Known about the structure:
Strand content: under 5%
Distance between the termini: 110 Å
Amino acid sequence: MSGTTMVVLIVLISVGSGVIYDMYKKHLEFKSRTLKNSKEANEHVAEVTKELQELRERVQTLEAIVTDSSYNVKQEINRL
């Protein structure tokens, strides 16, 4: 193997290793951001689920008030 070939191989191996290392670092950064976004999304889903449950309870309460027979009597009295 000639000296020039040896130098070219050393340069290619060095550059290739650097590229592979940079790709690995980018992969780890992407994975980290994905996990962070996933946690934020899960927190948002939990908040929305809690709000939905509270709204369902409020609607049930309002339905109970409106369907109560005394509510109808009050409405009629107020109309008079």
